[in-house]
Structures are given as C-alpha cells and as structure tokens.
Design brief:
Elements: E1 2-5, E2 13-19, E3 22-27, E4 36-42, E5 45-53, E6 56-62, E7 65-70, E8 73-79, E9 82-87, E10 97-102, E11 108-112, E12 117-122, E13 127-133, E14 137-142, E15 148-152, E16 157-162, E17 167-173, E18 179-185, E19 190-195, E20 200-204, E21 210-214, E22 224-225, E23 229-234, E24 239-244
Antiparallel strand pairs: 1-24, 2-3, 3-4, 4-5, 6-7, 7-8, 8-9, 10-11, 11-12, 12-13, 14-15, 15-16, 16-17, 18-19, 19-20, 20-21, 22-23, 23-24
Length: 246
Amino acid sequence: MLLIIVGGYFKHPETVLWVGGRMFVSDIGEFGKRDGKVYMKEGRRWSVWASYLKDPKGLAHCGGVLYVADVDRVWAVKDRSAVFEVVGPKDFTAQFLNGITCARGGKLYVSDTYGNAIYLIDPRRRTVKKVLSVEKPNGLAVDGRGNLYVITFTSPGRLLRWNGSTLDTVLVSSVIDGGDGLVYVSDRDVILASGYESGKVVKVSPNGRYSVIAQGLRTPAGIGFDGRYVYVPLLELGEIKRFKVF
C-alpha cells in the first residue's frame, strides 16, 4: 500500500481515472456548491483540468475526450479551457448521475443512482435513451465483448452484467456493500470493484468468484487502475491510496 495524496489537497475525491500515463481525479468539493474540479497529474505535477463544476463524480475518456458525470448533466472536457455540456436538464430528468463509461460507437453509458436508471448517451447527436431500470446503479464498466457491468449502491451490493438484452447477476455479497467503483481489466478479464460501505476493494471474475485486495478502508469510491495498481479515493478523508493488484 502507498499513500499517494494526503488530506489537504482534495476535499472529497470521488473518482480516479488513468489515461495514457496521466491520472485524472474528480473532486466534489463542498456538496451542492459550484466548486467541483477535475485534477490531472502527469509525472509529479498536478494541475486543474476543469473547474466550476457542481458535484463531479464518474469519469470516462472516449475518443480523446474526457467526460464527467455531474448530478443532472454530463460535461465534455477537451482541454483545460474547453468544457461544455453534452446533455443536461433540458434533455432528460436525472436525480443523481454517478457512474459513466464508454460504449460502442462513440456513445456513453451513465448511471442515475437515485433515479434507478442507466442511460445511453450519444455525444455527437446529444441524445439520451434510457436502456435499463436498476435499483441504485453506481459504477459502470464495459468489457471487451461489449457487456455492460453495473455495481449497485445497495446492501448487499450487487454486480450485474447486461449483454444488451439480458441482465444477469454476477455477484451479490456484503463484500461490496454500497457498491461504488468499477473497472474492467481487459488483459486479465476481471473486474475490480469497491464497496463504499463495506470498506473493501475486490477482484471479481466473470463467474462471480472474488478475492479481497484491500479492506478496512473508509468510504472507498470510484477506483482507477494503471495496469498494476488500483487507486482508491477515500471520499470522506480527502485521500487517495493505491494497492498492488497483479
């Protein structure tokens, strides 16, 4: 285990995303205020990638664009100065957008945790379509076959897999209570998942077998993976920790 960032830099770090050697972190700031930010770390240097967001949570990097799920809208960030709304309240009614991931054809999946829904968004056409009704969906990930994995913010937590027509249950367990972060590791064909309420990070195979990577954590949220380590934002502590996975 290695502590990467100590409290004092972040207020409420929610999601970590690794893209080509750069680490992005969404920081909610104070809940309900327009002080949320996305930070970017390259080498040892940190910089603000996007600011004046409300409560930014899930991050996805698709087609060279960083997408951010933020309460009732999705932002696109092309560089530090180009932040624009992809979809928002004028396009659909969302209660708590949370997880986001890339889908096929340049589209996005986004979860509405308190709206009990998952949407498919086309950023180019700026359209939104509800594709699933799921109780408290949170983190999302797509595997190499196009299956969508969903972890639920429930107790016990549930890990689900959707192939576009059938929704299957992969795992139901207290080990992922308050299911939050989700990452698919393509070269190992495994899922990394965090339980916000269980305080654990686990590695799960497609058949539901799991092993614990880390435990005893306080409020582990949207995890990120750099190919070797899993990075765990501890939302209430304002810290990020990393743990070796492979």
